[in-house]
Structure formats: C-alpha cells, structure tokens
C-alpha cells in the first residue's frame, strides 16, 4: 500500500494534513519528528514526506530539527510553514524574522511555473500564519511564489523533488490547496491512490477472519460510534466468536439500553451481554459530589463489571477495542495537562490477562470510521451520533447522583433532543444535552407555589471538541423545549440556556 509520512513538528494542523492526504485516497501516517530516523523512513517505503508547521523558530535552541540526510534520500519532501523554513535552514539557506514580514490569514500569493502549481491560476488566496520567512534560498532551490510581504512564499528543487511552501495548503481558506496537494501526491510522489474504504473493509474482515480463527474475542460495547463499528466489523469477520458486553450503569440516556439491544441483537443478530449494573453503580456513587471522584468510581466499577462478565464466559483470550487514530496520536504526545480524566476502557488490558488485543480502526480518523460504519449497514442515526461521555449522566448531574435525579434528567434531556430533531435545523449542533443543577428556585403553577430543580440546556458547535462555540439555537426551539420540560417533567420549575463557549467553559458541566 502506498503511504505518505507526515512528520510532525508540533503544528496545529497536523491531523488535518493527514486527513487531506487520505481524502485523496492515499494512506498517511503522522509520526513525531524525533520518533523516526531517516533509515526507518527509507525502510518503510514512504512515497513522500510532508514536514508540518510548528510553533518554533528554526534558530531556537530547543526547536525541533531533523536529519538533513532526509533531503538526499531520494524521497519527495513537501515542507509546510515551519517545515518549509526548516528545509531552507537544513540546506544552507537563511531564515529571518521581521514584524514587517508577518502575515496572518488570507493572503494573495503569486505563483511561478512549477509542477506543484500545475493547473493553478497565476495568483490566488492562501492561508498564511508566520513571522519568520526565508530570506536566502538554499543551494539548488528556485523561488516559485511570493506575496506582498513574503519574498519567498514557496521554493523548489525539481530535480530532487523537494518543495516548500510558507502558506498552509491543508487549510480550506487556501483556495487551491487541494490541487497543490494533489499535484504533490500524484505527480511528484507518483502515487496512484489505493486507499479506499471499501478495500479497507474487505481487507480487514479477511485479515481478522484468518487471524482470529478459533479464538474467542470480547469487546466492551458502549453504543457510541467507535465501539459499535469495531463490533459490527468483527462480527462480520468471526460471527458468534465475538461476544460484546454492554454495561448498563444506569447513567445512560432515555431508551439507550433498548436501542443497543434492538440494534446489535435485534438487527445484527450479535452476541451481546447486557449487564444490568444499575444498582451497583448507584450504591458506589451514593454521597459522592466531586466530579473527578465520580469519574474514578465509574471507571473502576466499569472494569469490575466487565471482568465479572468475562470471567463467566471463561475461555476468552482476545480483547477488541474501538481505538481510533487520534487516540493513538494523542496518547503518544504525552504531557498535556489533564483537564478532566476522560473515562474509557483503557484500563482493561493492563488489568486482565488477554493474550492479544485487536483494534480494527486504530489507523482511521473519525470521518473514516463513519464511512466504514455506513458501509457496514449501521443506521445513520448511530453513525452521526453526538458524542456521549463514558461517565454518562453522572457528569451532567451537579452534586450527588440519585435514581430520582437521573429520571428527571433523562426526561428533560429526551425532550430537548426531540425538539432539536423536530426542528430539522440546517446544521444540527455538534453536541446538545440537558444538565441537572443542584439549584432550586421558586415557581408558580396554577395558583400554587412550587419549589423545584433548575435544568440547563447546552448546545455547542465544534469540529474537534477542543474548542467549541455555544450554538445560536432558534428561540422557537428553546421556547418549545423549555415549556415542554416544565410542563411534562414534575420537579423541574426552571430551564436556562448556557451561553458559554469553550474556552473558558468546558462542554460538559463537570
Ligand atoms: P469537555 O467537557 O472536556 O468535553 O469540553 C469534550 C468532549 O469530550 C466529552 N467528554 C467525555 N467523554 N469521558 C468521555 O468518554 C469523559 O469523562 C468525558 N468528559 C467529556 C464531551 O462530551 C465532549 O464531547
């Protein structure tokens, strides 16, 4: 299979670069610049290498550098932004810094004739984000683009198939970015485009059928996209040798357990154990109000329930997980601050003695997982689901969790989701839900005074959930949801809408 290496120098668009390459049907891998050598790059047989951007200046003592031998390895290289400057620096060129040269945002760039710019007009808008710039070209390179403030906006050495661009072709604001990447991948690297999802699916099913033959496989099914796709894919490969365990911890949305049963047992005919652990979780959570403590208890108890079910099954040796590519990249990055300990089934392999772990989607991005899900026949409703946190409604109930509060929140949340569905919005928010606060306030119903709970409605719009804007929902939708909640859910007297973005707030309230 053809593949491209995205050599990561710490820029913010690195995953985007890999996705843009894959959109053009070529498999791309992201590797940190200090975790791979030139010899390994050669041995892996990459068709081309892309140096990403990064926040540093090439002259900083601690800035990431790379072995200049990569430029003589005979492999085409495209350097983007910092990657472009690094190529210049490695080849003996000069990089300077001047406030008068900095460019941020949409910038008109003028192109010269180059294989990288084949099919482009003489000028067009590109996305710039830099202060440093290349002031002297490295030996053997030609200047192939400029802007009003940047004299060398792109450079090339056609004979050695080395290219650098100061702007970001991966960002959609670069009008011809897609065409430039296409030129690099197909014309310069000589790729043919063999990364297609249908083939990936067939090959994976074939591979797991062979590899897992005669083995018993266990998978923790959450009902979310990733574990659902992993489950259905493996079911296609090995049928009833796959057992899924769905832990009903009682912190689920309304009708969630039924939905999982109908989909996976009813529709796909899979082996699914639905472990009813509702009482068990409530007991453990009694009296607990601190968010991180709730998460820890739920994570720990989840593993214990799963272990109990696995023990009952006996001879299971393989654990399957719905890990996807961003999980793999992120876990390799290490030391970013823990804002919230996100609960997933990550603790399982360490605790339990499995002889093998399979992660069918560990090379895929989220949108690719969706595509596979659709090909596997999963309902759009499931494939396009909004994310739901592992600790479920526990992090949407402020304060202690009780069965009564869970019931109130489940009803309010279901009404809000129904109203958003009925509204048929052009673009639905990325995530939307209700939160039950521990705040009580006075209300009036008929002629009587009431004193009930306050529910918050939250809806956010985002691409990556790292940042998010609060969604400008139509007033009519908010009005309808608010009045239905106070009318239909006894015990709730007030409904408010959350207008904080992330940052400063997080998406979830806890
Ligand atoms: P925050 O609240 O950190 O959420 O802005 C970002 C995204 O992550 C989801 N989230 C979680 N998912 N376990 C999960 O599996 C968790 O503990 C958890 N906390 C937040 C959240 O729903 C949002 O999509």
Major sheet: size, sense and barrel closure?
A: 9 strands, mixed
Oligomer: single chain
Mean pLDDT: 93
Strand content: 15-25%
- Uncertain segments are 333-344
Can you walk through the features of this model?
- The chain has about 500 residues and is an alpha/beta fold.
- It has three domains: about 5-190, Class I glutamine amidotransferase (GATase) domain (Rossmann fold); about 195-385, Rossmann fold, CATH 3.40.50.620; about 410-495, GMP Synthetase, Chain A, domain 3, CATH 3.30.300.10.
- Helix content is about 35%, strand content about 25%.
- It has helices at about 15-25, 40-45, 80-90, 175-190, 195-210, 225-240, 255-265, 280-285, 290-315, 325-335, 350, 365-375, 380-385, 405-425, 475-490; strands at about 5-10, 25-30, 50, 75-80, 95, 105-110, 125-130, 130-135, 140-145, 155, 160-165, 215-220, 240-250, 270-275, 320, 355-360, 430-445, 450-460, 470, 490-495.
- It has a nine-stranded mixed beta sheet, with helices on both faces. It has a five-stranded parallel beta sheet with strand order 14-13-12-15-16, sandwiched between helices. Strands 17, 18, 19 and 20 form a four-stranded mixed beta sheet that branches.
- It is globular.
- The model is unreliable at about 335-345 (pLDDT under 50).
- Bound molecules: xanthosine-5'-monophosphate (XMP).
- Xanthosine-5'-monophosphate binds near residues 342, 389, 507 and 508.
List keywords for this structure.
single chain; 510 residues; alpha/beta; Rossmann fold; 3 domains; five-stranded parallel beta sheet; 15 helices; binds xanthosine-5'-monophosphate
């Amino acid at each position: 299979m053809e593949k491209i290496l995205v050599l990561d120098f710490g820029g913010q668009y690195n995953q985007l670069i890999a996705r843009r390459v894959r959109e053009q049907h070529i498999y791309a891998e992201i590797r940190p610049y200090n975790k791979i050598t030139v010899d390994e790059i050669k041995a892996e047989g990459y068709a081309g290498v892309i140096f990403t951007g990064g926040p540093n200046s090439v002259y900083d003592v601690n800035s990431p550098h790379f072995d200049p031998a990569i430029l003589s390895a005979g492999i085409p290289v495209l350097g983007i932004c910092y990657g472009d400057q690094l190529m210049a620096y490695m080849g003996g060129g000069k990089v300077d810094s001047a406030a008068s040269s900095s460019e941020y945002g949409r910038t008109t760039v003028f192109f010269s004739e180059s294989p990288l710019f084949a099919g482009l007009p003489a000028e067009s808008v590109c996305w710039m984000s830099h202060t440093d710039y290349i002031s002297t070209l490295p030996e053997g390179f030609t200047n192939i683009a400029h802007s009003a403030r940047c004299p060398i906006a792109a450079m090339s050495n056609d004979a050695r198939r080395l290219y650098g661009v100061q702007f970001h072709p991966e960002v959609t604001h670069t009008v011809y970015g897609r065409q430039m990447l296409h030129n690099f991948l197909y014309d310069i690297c000589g790729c043919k485009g063999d990364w297609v999802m249908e083939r990936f699916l067939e090959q994976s099913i074939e591979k797991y059928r062979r590899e897992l033959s005669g083995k018993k496989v266990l998978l923790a099914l959450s009902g979310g996209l990733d574990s659902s796709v992993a489950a259905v894919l493996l079911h296609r490969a090995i049928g009833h040798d796959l057992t899924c365990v769905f832990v009903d911890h009682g912190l689920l949305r309304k009708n969630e357990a039924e939905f999982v049963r109908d989909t996976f047992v009813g529709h796909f005919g899979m082996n699914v154990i639905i472990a009813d652990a509702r009482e068990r979780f409530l007991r453990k959570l009694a009296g607990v109000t601190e968010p991180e403590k709730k998460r820890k208890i739920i994570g720990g108890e989840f593993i214990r329930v799963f272990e109990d079910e696995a023990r009952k099954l006996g001879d299971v040796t393989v654990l399957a997980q719905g890990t996807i590519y961003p999980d793999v990249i992120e876990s390799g990055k290490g030391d970013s601050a823990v804002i919230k300990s996100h609960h997933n089934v990550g603790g399982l392999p360490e605790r339990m003695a499995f002889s093998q772990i399979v992660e069918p989607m560990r090379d895929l991005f989220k949108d690719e997982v969706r595509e596979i899900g659709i090909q596997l026949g999963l309902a759009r409703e499931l494939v396009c689901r909004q994310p739901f946190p592992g600790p479920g409604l526990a992090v949407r109930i402020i304060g202690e969790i009780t069965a009564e509060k869970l019931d109130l929140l489940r009803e309010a949340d279901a009404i809000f989701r129904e109203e958003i569905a009925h509204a048929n919005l052009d673009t639905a928010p990325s995530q939307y839900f209700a939160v039950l606060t521990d705040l009580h306030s006075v209300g009036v119903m008929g002629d009587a005074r009431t004193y009930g709970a306050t529910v918050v409605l939250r809806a956010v719009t985002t691409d990556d959930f790292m940042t998010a804007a609060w969604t400008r929902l139509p007033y009519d939708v908010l009005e309808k949801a608010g009045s239905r909640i106070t009318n239909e859910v006894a015990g709730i007297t007030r409904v408010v809408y959350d207008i904080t973005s992330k940052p400063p707030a997080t998406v979830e309230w806890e």
